[in-house]
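Hi R.,

As promised on Friday, here is the backbone we talked about, encoded as structure tokens. Could you run it through your design pipeline when you get a chance and send me back a sequence?
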């Protein structure tokens, strides 16, 4: 078995994502992640297990007795929510997921209120949190920080798991999990997710949710991916290369209407202008053809799903909001369930909750 305490940071960092994967598992025969850092840690078996556990938690939580049972399972644990980038849903749904499982939480949402302001490094701050908490849920603008901390904390005197809630422009694995859970639920009684066509539209270059979800979709059979973006915001080469390497069928286009006609799900994204390198860079890009409105709604099939990680600006017109195919509200609630499932699994409670009497 790969043991993260037996590899140097330099050697670990140099591994491919597939090679890193076994170092991040719970171990003892369980392939579930201990540290959740990137989407490549999840295969179909794990996705199905997490969706099943989410369903189970959702069901158990319906009765008072069930909800009180769930609140007891991790009542002896504490989690730190360390968000050094803005967040509404990811922060609140992780908080709610912790509350569902009885976990006590602490949070830092602004480096200005922590010792980072006094010049402490992020590494030292995170090490400090690990002295007081049993899990760190973190969002950072720095691409490799969650991974570095996972290695550091596994090799520290008090190892605690890291859950990546968004790392730079790179990955957002728990968002992709909730997107998969939403897709699985949307197509549950309509023949499943295999064989579907998923359209990604918007800022595909800098949207970390796209990279993570695009990868997770490759775990399903014959799911075609269509990427629709202005030339300046095209899907990055690494995403396309990993699809090509896996023999997944994909298309790159600027024609949203044509894509919507053949789509089972349309995943809209916001222009991520917080990453602009010069003032007004994004504002100069013509994004008018990359919005979902009444015309696109009319072209989408009756079983289609309209998705968005949110927050939205004007990528989806509000006239779509009450359409039964608008799944973006459901994505938010699904996020709470699957994050609770992931946290419970990280602490080794998957079987116990699946088999409990509620
Ligand atoms: C996304 C994020 O922050 O990466 N939102 C989210 O987590 N729900 C996408 C975004 O901010 O556009």
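Update: got your reply. Pasting your designed sequence below so it's all in one thread:
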């Amino acid at each position: 078995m790969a043991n993260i305490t037996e590899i140097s940071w330099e050697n670990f960092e140099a591994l491919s994502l597939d090679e890193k994967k076994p170092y991040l598992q719970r171990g003892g025969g369980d392939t579930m992640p201990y540290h959740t850092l990137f989407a490549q840690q999840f295969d179909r078996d794990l996705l199905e297990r997490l969706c099943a556990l989410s369903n189970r938690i959702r069901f158990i939580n319906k009765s008072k007795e069930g909800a009180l049972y769930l609140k007891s399972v991790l009542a002896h644990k504490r989690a730190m929510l360390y968000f050094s980038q803005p967040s509404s849903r990811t922060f609140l749904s992780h908080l709610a997921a912790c509350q569902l499982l009885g976990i006590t939480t602490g949070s830092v949402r602004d480096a200005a209120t922590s010792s980072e302001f006094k010049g402490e490094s992020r590494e030292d701050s995170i090490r400090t949190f690990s002295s007081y908490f049993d899990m760190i849920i973190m969002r950072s603008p720095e691409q490799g920080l969650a991974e570095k901390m996972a290695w550091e904390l596994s090799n520290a005197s008090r190892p605690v798991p890291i859950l990546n809630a968004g790392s730079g422009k790179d990955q957002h694995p728990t968002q992709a999990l909730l997107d998969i859970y939403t897709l699985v639920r949307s197509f549950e009684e309509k023949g499943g997710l295999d064989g579907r066509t998923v359209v990604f539209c918007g800022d595909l270059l800098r949207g970390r949710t796209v990279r993570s979800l695009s990868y997770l979709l490759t775990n399903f059979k014959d799911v075609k991916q269509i990427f629709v973006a202005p030339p300046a915001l095209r899907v990055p080469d690494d995403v396309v290369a990993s699809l090509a390497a896996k023999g997944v069928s994909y298309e790159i286009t600027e024609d949203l209407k044509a894509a919507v006609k053949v789509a089972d799900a349309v995943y809209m994204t916001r222009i991520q202008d917080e990453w602009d390198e010069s003032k007004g860079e994004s504002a100069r890009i013509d994004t008018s053809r990359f919005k979902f409105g009444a015309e696109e709604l009319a072209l989408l099939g009756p079983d289609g799903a309209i998705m968005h990680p949110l927050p939205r600006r004007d990528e989806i017109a509000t006239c779509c909001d009450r359409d039964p195919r608008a799944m973006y509200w459901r994505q938010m609630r699904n996020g709470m369930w699957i994050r609770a499932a992931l946290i419970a699994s990280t602490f080794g409670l998957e079987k116990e909750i699946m088999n409990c009497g509620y």
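One thing I noticed while checking it: The radius of gyration is 20 Å.

Thanks again,
M.
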